[in-house]
Design brief:
This protein is α+β, with helices and mostly antiparallel strands. It has three domains: 102 residues, Beta-Lactamase; 66 residues; 177 residues, 2-Layer Sandwich (Heat Shock Protein 90), CATH 3.30.565.10. It is 37% helix and 24% strand. The chain is built from eleven helices and 16 strands. The strands form five sheets. Strands 2-1-5-4-3 form a five-stranded antiparallel β-sheet. Helix 7 packs antiparallel against helix 8 and helix 9 packs across helix 10. It is elongated, with a radius of gyration of 26 Å. 27% of the residues are buried.
Amino acid sequence: MATEPAVPSTDSPPVDTSAPDPSAQISGLVFSLILIDPQGIVTQVNHAAEALLGTSAKRIIGQRLDRVVTPLDDRVANWLASGEGALVARDIRVKLAGLEVPVNLTMSALASHPGWRVVTISQLGHEKASSEEQGSPAVGAPSILAHEIKNPLAAIRGAAQLIARKLPHADKSLARMITDEVDRIARLIDRMQQLGSQASEPAQPCNPHEAIRSALATVRAAGLDGVEVLEEFDPSLPPILANRDALEQVLINLVTNARDAAAETAARSGSADTARVVIRTRYVSGLVFSATRFGRTIRLPIEICVSDNGAGVDADLRDRLFEPFVSSKPSGQGLGLALVRKLMRDMDGSISHEREGRAGLTHFRLHLPMAHRDEAGKARK
């Protein structure tokens, strides 16, 4: 009896639905995890710890924790030496590749293995693109509200324009006030829509300094209010992988905020000539920030730092600085930095805030990926 030829199966290979083993779980963590033995010797690290410490596991394993994380806060060092149980240390400062960084550090004892402890380190200020954050109502709500508000706004504006034609000249300013306020609200709605949008513009290789200078030209055209703007660029930086328009928008926002903060503080002190904003670029050698996106780690070695000598952000707002509707300005809407964070996330980048109290400086640091190079040496995606 004739038989039909076998047809190759087009079904996808079966998906492994079993739970990941502990090693896979540790590797997937977005914060740094270090395992130390009873003598305080590092015996295991995950990928996030390698990225934060800027070196490989081979160089870390076998060293004492206080040689890897320096200078270790005295209280943490004493706790490490005592071999006691759990510890939570918030906002302590450590040096990573010569850069002082604020971190949270926890130490947990393993009851099943006396003397062994698990140490976690997470850097303060850096946004983390978690699934909870991306899907939070605070981000999605603006887009929904914007759609419902824009139609009646257009009707109000049209009615105000019709009324203005029939009003005497002395009263036309009232109609213009209505249209101006409607336009202001419409611009706010546009920003809310952009914040809630899930779409992102494609990233391309670009020169970071060209983007910075274009942004600075826009800010200068609007006026610097007597603030001195300085550029400290590393000319050897390679091209970055970013969306040029989005990066310029980020920089315009940060430089404008820095200008306003420096000018306001200088005006209060009566020393307007001291107001200063500095934009620095550098390759973060030895210290490689990583952003975890969709299960992959992305190296972010290119840093753009916007610094100002203003009074800084209120301490009670610093932990929520990048959240929607949080602002330190009396007339601020709290959307600018939330949008900056979204645009940086869309470019697989990172943004952090740091207040350097002793020097009286505020720093906003952008970290971005490099564009890859092909065999001909040309930058590519």
